[in-house]
Amino acid sequence: MSAVSKSRDPDRLVLFTDAVVAIAITLLVLPLVDLVPEVKDHGGDAVSVITKHRQEIFTFLLSFVVIANFWLGHHRIFEHVRVYTAGIMRLNLLWLLTIVVLPFTTEIVGAFDSDRFVAGVYIGTILVLSICQSALALLVHGHKELETPDNPVSRRELTGSLVLTGFTLVAFLLGSLVPGINFYAMLLLLLPTPVMRVWR
Amino acid sequence: MSAVSKSRDPDRLVLFTDAVVAIAITLLVLPLVDLVPEVKDHGGDAVSVITKHRQEIFTFLLSFVVIANFWLGHHRIFEHVRVYTAGIMRLNLLWLLTIVVLPFTTEIVGAFDSDRFVAGVYIGTILVLSICQSALALLVHGHKELETPDNPVSRRELTGSLVLTGFTLVAFLLGSLVPGINFYAMLLLLLPTPVMRVWR
Amino acid sequence: MSAVSKSRDPDRLVLFTDAVVAIAITLLVLPLVDLVPEVKDHGGDAVSVITKHRQEIFTFLLSFVVIANFWLGHHRIFEHVRVYTAGIMRLNLLWLLTIVVLPFTTEIVGAFDSDRFVAGVYIGTILVLSICQSALALLVHGHKELETPDNPVSRRELTGSLVLTGFTLVAFLLGSLVPGINFYAMLLLLLPTPVMRVWR
Amino acid sequence: MSAVSKSRDPDRLVLFTDAVVAIAITLLVLPLVDLVPEVKDHGGDAVSVITKHRQEIFTFLLSFVVIANFWLGHHRIFEHVRVYTAGIMRLNLLWLLTIVVLPFTTEIVGAFDSDRFVAGVYIGTILVLSICQSALALLVHGHKELETPDNPVSRRELTGSLVLTGFTLVAFLLGSLVPGINFYAMLLLLLPTPVMRVWR
């Protein structure tokens, strides 16, 4: 498919993406806001809003970090993009759908005890996000008509993206299939950075 | 009415439009987020959040695709716009109103059994959106003072927009008037793309 | 106070303003979205979501039109602004505060029977918005260091803004002080446009 | 760490930041919107929405002013930034996290009687925000490769930022440790401006 954009682009896609990410990352706080009147209605005090809802607060923080990191990654890829195709646009919309779904899966993790299903839904969402991001990097990499000439996607960046996707896949399989692991599988997602550092 | 904008435009209108679309498409997830504490309060588990609310999840996905596609169409039209008139601006605001209403009609579809009324409200919203989009394309097409000189609205794009509006009208009439069809009428909206391909 | 901005401005203020307006205008739909599960929980059907909540739907539409119109007015003023002072920035933030408050006053109008208090709160919010907008126009008008040289604020625009503010003040006084008028006072806001046309 | 961005930056970071701030500042109104049906369900009238919830309305206004002021401060710092490093980016994300958390702490302040815990949580959030802002100013100040050459961070701006952080720290300690002071400690935050004026 041919390049769609000549003027004003890829800025418009990038701005739209940033707006959706900004909204999704900010909406994460709404379930915490809703906790307050609920705690009050049940006679709780201000301290118990925090102490009795550590799980919700922790998953809020976790999802904030997840979205922020994928935004940074998206940012790095689009540094290299000069024009974009309908393919990039559709893939980007799938990436955005996953971002929009994250406040929902975050709420599931915050509300229910962690088991394989809950861990699978959450890590699965991150897996889809990571696959989209790697696919975007692959789509741009080595396509001279898409890349900014003086700043192409480096082999290293592409590898980094694929390594992260690989680790997320393993985390997803462990968390959703092996009983008792659940969210501990996400610790695997801390590994790609040191791995890539050794690789150098 | 004369052209309103000289500087900073049509970028400001486009950015405002993108921001509203980004918010509306992200707000679609809020009713799903609200499902979680509700299911929990009724003693449901994490699996039932998904399995017992397939209708809500499906309409969420449907509306995401609808908004994303209209945004892509809007994007294509405004690729051709150099300056804009008060008429374009007001028409664009009507387009935006319909986008803002979509999370409401989505929620109606997600909550109630589908009948002619529910299908009519939902497909009707899409019809208004589609009429606005066609009117925008018609308003810009062939007006040299509005179009970017090297990139005018093509006859083909205009036809494509009108064909989509025509199919949406038929879908609306079938879904809201003929008993038993309801949302199956929306399958008609899959036709314009192959139709336009044959047309070529 | 001296000019604050040299680079990237007033674009950043304008973009921030547009983002807040876009969010506020889209948030207006949330109370409508929340109606749906409420109606369903009380055994209502899809038709009654619309027929029994005409007041909420009407005030939603009214506030959409109000915000859209003030955004258009703001847009026109900032067409003329080249750099901005701390004064413009603070005044713009007050304008934004009023926009952010509008979903709250809209909800009050939608939920309660109209009386002088409800009309006063709603028209009062619009009055503050209109005063800010006129003050912005006054602040920029005739200040060569702020205006774009080839596109200053015209006398006519300034008069139009002040006339609108005057009519809003009268509407506010009538609606909040004279029993039985309430929201009919807002019909006065339809007058400034024909008045300005005769003026010409 | 080396500079991350060459093209389109720091605009993308700044735009993303503005979007998150715009959303957070607008979301502040949602708890007020939610008050309306609640008051109505309990048989209250429109006047009591305002008169019986002065605390919520006041904290809404307070947080609006707090977010607006930090946005203005952020704005001033980024006037000086030409390119940014991964360090600035991560620090900016921490700043954003604090902004996103503010609607939550605002709701706690609005719902519960003020005591040392509530005051500590709220002023503590502002303290983190202020520390991030000072750290951003420090990071940029005197780094020729980051600053715009004709518009570096002035010594005075840096001092102003540090003085504000200092006063916020004292306010936090007083409000969260000394019984009976609570939110009166925030009056200290009015001092930095006159202090800096004398300093000149």
> What would you report as the Rg of chain A, rounded to the nearest angstrom?
19 Å
- The domain count of chain A comes to 1
The two chains with the largest interface, and their residue counts, are:
A-B, 34 and 34 residues
| Morphology of chain A | globular
Q: For the report, how would you describe the main beta sheet of chain A?
A: none
Q: In total, how many beta strands of chain A?
A: 0
Strand fraction of chain A equals: under 5%
Order of helices and strands of chain A: HHHHHHHH
Residues in helices of chain A, as a percent range? over 70%
Judged by helices, strands and strand pairing, the structural class of chain A is: mainly alpha
Unreliable runs of chain A: 1-8
Q: N- to C-terminal separation of chain A? A: 35 Å
Assembly context of the chains: homotetramer
Average pLDDT rating of chain A:
88
Number of helices of chain A: 8
Give a short summary of the structure.
The first copy, chain A, has 200 residues and is mostly helical. Chain A contains eight helices and no strands. Chain A has one domain.
What does this structure look like?
4 copies of one chain form a homotetramer. Chain A has 200 residues and is an all-alpha fold. Chain A has one domain. Helix content of chain A is 71%, strand content 0%. Chain A contains 8 helices and no strands. Chain A has helices at residues 11-27, 30-41, 46-51, 54-78, 86-111, 116-140, 155-177, 192-199. In chain A, helix 1 runs antiparallel to helix 4 (54-78), helix 4 runs parallel beside helix 6 and helix 5 packs antiparallel against helix 6 (116-140). The radius of gyration of chain A is 19 Å and the shape is globular. The two termini of chain A are 35 Å apart. The relative contact order of chain A is 0.12. Mean pLDDT of chain A is 88; it is low at 1-8. The A-B interface holds A 4-9, 12, 15-16, 19-20, 23-24, 27, 30-31, 34, 89, 93, 96-97, 100-101, 103-104, 107-108, 110-112, 115, 117-118, 121 and B 11, 14-15, 18-19, 21-23, 25-30, 32-33, 36-37, 40, 45-47, 49-50, 61, 64, 68, 71-72, 75-76, 79, 148, 151.
